[in-house]
Each structure stands twice: as C-alpha cells, then as structure tokens.
Amino acid sequence: MNWKDSGISSKSDAEVNLLVQDVLLDPKFKAEDLRGFSAAKENRRSDAAEKKTPFADSFQTADINIEVPSGDKSVPPATFSVPGLLYRKLTTVIQATFSSPLGSHFHFSPFMLFHRSPSGEEQRVFSEVYNSDVCIDEHDNIQRAPLPPDEPFCKLEKVLAILMIWSDSTHLANFGTAKLWPIYLLFGNISKYIHGQPNSGACQHVAYIPSLPDSFQDFASSFFCKWGTQKKDLMTHCRRELMHGVWRFLLDDDFIHAYKYGMVITCADGIKRRVYPRFFTYSADYPEKVLLATIRDKGLCPCPRCLVPKSKLDQTGTKRDSNFRLKNARTYLLDKVRTARDAIYRLGMAISGAVVDRLLKATSSVPTVNAFVNKLGSDFDIPRMLVVDLLHEFELGVWKALFTHLIRVLYAAASDGSLVAELDRR
Questions:
Q1: Partner of 166 for a Cys bridge, out of 23, 94, 184, 226, CB 3.0 to 4.6 A?
Q2: Does a structural domain hold residue 33?
C-alpha cells in the first residue's frame, strides 16, 4: 500500500490487485531477476526491439525528384529533391499478402452470382468486385497475356491481384500543421465483409506522401524568374509534379514487369500461381481526384470522368446529362500535355499563360504527365479508376451539405415542421 500511496495519485486499487495477483504471486516471479533493474535501460531495449520488427523493416525511405521550370528560355529547368517518402514496394506487399494467412480468403476465379426467388426467377447479383463484369473480363484478358521471355512455357494458373487504392491527406490535430498523407491498398479478391473487420489486417499501408518542404520556396524564389507574379501557379504545378513523381516511383520496374508478365507467388494454400496486378479502383476526395486525373481544380470541365462543362451542371441527374457524360468521357491528351510542357520548360512560357491555355484549358487539363499513363501505357483509363468516395462525397461531403440546405428550405416554407415530417414519412 505504501507503493500505491507514493508517486502519482492515479494508481487505483485495481492496479494494486493486478500487481499482486499477476506479478508477485506468479510462480515464475523471482525477486533475483530484478537486481540491477533500470526502467530507462528497459525502455531503450524495448525501443530497439520495435525497430527490428518486420513491419518497420518493410518500409523504406526515398527522395522524389521534380523538375522546376526557370521561367526563362535561356535557363534550363532545375531538379529539386523532395525528401521524406516512406514507402513499401508494391510487389512486396502483393507477395506478402497472397502468401499470408489472409490469402486463404482470396477468390482467384471471378464468377457471376445469381439469386433464385421462390417463384424460380433468377436475378443477377452484384455484391463484390470479383463477381462484376469488369473483373470477369479482365480475368479473361490475362489468360491471353504474354509470358516472360525466360519462362515462355510456364503452365501456372494465371490470376488477378485486384488492387483497390485509397489516399487521403489527413490533419493529425485540430491545431498546428502536423499532417500525414497515406496511401492504402486493399485487395478486391477478398470479401468486403472481411475488409470491414478492423482486426482482419486486410488494409495495407503502401506509402506516406511527403509535402513540399519549406526550403522549396527559398529555392524557387531564387531560381524561378517570375516568382513575384506566378508564385501560386508554380506551387500548384510542383505539388502536382510531386504527387505523380511519387506514383512514378511506386510503379517501379518490378511492378511494371509483374503488370505485363505476372509474378509467381506461392499462395497461402501452397500452390504457385502467376499473379497479374491490376488497378480496379482509386478512392479519394475531390481535391485528390483532381491531382490524380491531372485536371484543374474546379475548371471549365470540373468532372474527373467526363467533359461536362460547368454551364451544364444544373442538368445533373437528367437523362440528357447522362447521355452527354457517356458520349463525352474524358481521355488523356498526352500529346497536348507534352507540347505544353515543352513550352513551359524549354521556351519559358507561363504555366497558366495563353500558350498553355490554348492547348489545355478547354478540357481543364494541366501540364503534368500522368504517372499511370506514363508507366502503364496510354490505353490505361484513369477516369474509370476514380470511383465515388462515399465518405467525402456523401456522408461528409457535398450531398450532406445539400441535404442540410434542403431541410432548411422545408423549415422556411413551413415553420411548423410539417414538410420535414412529410419528408421523413417518404
């Protein structure tokens, strides 16, 4: 009891009971083991042990190089190195997950799912990625995918690694500027019900995107000759370059080889399979979708998936709007982007100047080479990868704000709340 009453006063009776029952009365407890005990020394040992865990070792650090224009055609662009990328190799994450105990829940062959009613009527059911038409079609495509030159007669089963990416820049506190920008990976081969279990280990941390350091402004202000008038444009451009620089780094040679030829993995059931990674979804809020789709934030065509102009946004939800979006899907204009970059980096033109606007403004494109197109090929469809983000677009986003406003309108129209009650009834 003297120990309980000494030091801090927050020690409870329950803690004293735990000390006696679980420690002092334990048959394995020996007072001689505590001779020379030092709490500081044991803390240092614990910290050293944490650094040796496989999870910590799987993360690596790297610098991302971005090219900064000079604004003067007589001065070539300079390379600025952004430190602090914390990442895991995508191929390592895929191999580890497929061969882990979690891999026993993987679906390797997509299928159609049907529900048969008591009357005998059959209805197609879509409940998981692996029973969607897109997954079935892609599974058929990889059966015709080429084999690596060093294994031209490989007979292993070809399967998909269904990659579902999330990223979200997150503030760590309600005060200060501390933040993280994580990239998460989940596998569509696993049921969404397993994804939803907090302790399943289904969510993989892939990387933490760094921000432009304070030293960048010091560098840019002395190098970019138009800093006084184009500071905002340059900072926005370089943030885009950093985002896609990170993804170009993550989509390394090993991943591209696996993307094209597959990678042999001994799965959780002990069977070797040739696994082809494919990006199915990327979920992010609107500001990040703008970065990923390489379009202007709230530009003339603000949608990352189609070319509907701002002037027609009031038609959202109509049949005419749906037809317009389907007929005017967004495509990546690689040639125009390269021409615009040549004007900026070689000719010293303004990032948001007339030359660049003439090339890109009509489609709200920006002069940044998209990492996914650059590494995976010009036929990679970025807009189809960018799916609806339920958290930001519905639960906490624009729809919530719109619905709140509609409730206010109903209260304004009938102060007794009868219209709101009718809405609840419906």
A1: 184
A2: no
What residues pair up with 274 in beta bridges, in sequence order?
A: 158, 264
**Strand (E) or helix (H) holding 116:** strand 113-116
For residue 207, being part of any structural domain is answered with yes
Q: What is the torsion angle, in degrees rounded to the nearest 10, for the CA atoms of residue 199, residue 251, residue 180 and residue 394?
A: -70
What is the span of the domain harbouring residue 418? 396-425
263 part of a folded domain: yes
| Residue 85 β-bridge partners | 62
The rounded distance, in Å, linking the Cα atoms of 408 and 402 is: 10
- Cβ neighbours, 10 Å, residue 238: 23
pLDDT digits (tens, 9 = 90+) for 371-423: 999 999 999 999 999 988 777 777 776 778 888 899 999 999 988 888 999 98
Q: How far apart are the first and last CA of the chain?
A: 64
Rounded Cα distance, 126 and 133, in Å: 9
In tens, the pLDDT along 269-286 reads 999 999 999 999 999 988
Q: Mean pLDDT in the chain?
A: 90
- The total number of structural domains in the chain stands at 2
Residue after which a domain boundary falls, among 278, 294, 310: 294
Element (H or E) spanning 185, and its range?
A: strand 182-187
What are the structure tokens assigned to 368, written together? 């940044």
